[in-house]
Write a structure and sequence with these properties.
Shape: globular
CATH class: Alpha Beta
Protein name: Glyoxylase, beta-lactamase superfamily II
Strand order of the largest sheet: 6-7-8-9-12-13
GO molecular function, one term: hydrolase activity
Keywords: Hydrolase, Metal-binding, Zinc
Cofactor: Zn(2+)
Helix content: 10-25%
Number of helices: 7
Organism: Neptunomonas qingdaonensis
Number of domains: 1
Structural class: alpha+beta
Radius of gyration: 16 Å
CATH architecture: 4-Layer Sandwich
Largest sheet: 6 strands, mixed
Length: about 210
């Protein structure tokens, strides 16, 4: 699987275009907005969009979903149904954060822990990692050693838990028990900021490292 990160919205959210090199079929992960930028990247890479994948339903990750679905007539997979209330409240989120008006959508497939998502002939394993939101999921490409972690963990930080439905202990457990178990060498693309590896964060991240005081 190949990956291309496209920062979108004023929040500089890492929307990721990923595709199967054999079939050139692609998924867009967390299309938060700036749909023209996402569309340009799809065309530049010569891809056929197959689906939209959502890690969670905050506006900066999901704001462009309805528009892309309308353009390509593709299914939406994810997040976990625990984020239903965030999807139902997207218009309110949009107004609160000064985003353009967003269209309504509902996922074609809610995801559960242990599910598998396909992109062309490639696959992602689905991990339900609540804490930032109740329905947050992570997409793990085992063959590439790459995880799309949304806002669960960042380089040197972790996701916020002060929004409705956030839970700090759940987030810590998601990182330590699910993500770190994938292996130190696994690289991840977070929802914001630079990529890192789980091993680096396990050693150095002040919120979840083995060396916390």
């Amino acid at each position: 699987m190949k990956f291309r990160v496209i920062p979108v919205t004023a929040f500089q959210q890492n929307c990721t275009l990923c595709w199967c090199e054999e079939t050139m079929q692609a998924a867009v992960i967390d299309p938060g907005g700036d749909v023209a930028k996402i569309e340009a990247a799809i065309k530049e890479e010569g891809l056929q969009l197959e689906k939209i994948l959502l890690t969670h339903a905050h506006i900066d990750h999901a704001g462009g979903t309805a528009e892309i679905k309308a353009l390509h007539q593709v299914p939406i997979e994810g997040p976990h149904k625990g984020d239903l209330y965030w999807i139902e409240g997207l218009a309110k989120q949009s107004a609160m954060f000064g985003f353009p008006k967003v269209g309504d959508f509902m996922p074609d497939r809610w995801l559960e822990d242990g599910d598998v998502v396909t992109v062309g002939k490639q696959t992602f394993q689905v991990l339900h990692c609540p804490g930032h939101t109740p329905g947050h999921v992570v997409f793990f490409d085992k063959s590439a050693g790459m995880a799309q972690v949304g806002d669960v963990i960042f380089q040197g930080s972790i996701g916020r838990t002060d929004f409705p439905g956030g839970n700090h202990q759940q987030l810590i457990d998601s990182i330590r028990k699910k993500l770190f178990a994938l292996g130190d060498e696994v690289e991840f693309i977070p929802g914001h900021g630079p990529a890192s590896t789980l091993g680096h964060e396990k050693r150095t991240n002040p919120f979840v490292s083995d060396h916390r005081g």
